[in-house]
Design brief:
Length: about 50
């Protein structure tokens, strides 16, 4: 998760707010099913790179 300019580890009890940026990893079908409750998708964001 990215909070401001810092990338931080996520814990199961961590509260989220609208300013947090998350990298979600999972099957497309599952992510699409949650899309309406997740918020806006970003095209790109500085942070950990995934390949």
């Amino acid at each position: 998760m990215k909070r401001g300019d810092k990338v931080i580890a996520v814990t199961p009890d961590m509260p989220l707010n609208e300013n947090h940026i998350l990298l979600l990893v999972g099957r497309r079908k599952g992510i699409v099913a949650l899309a309406s409750s997740l918020g806006k998708e970003l095209d790109a964001e500085d942070g950990p790179e995934m390949t």
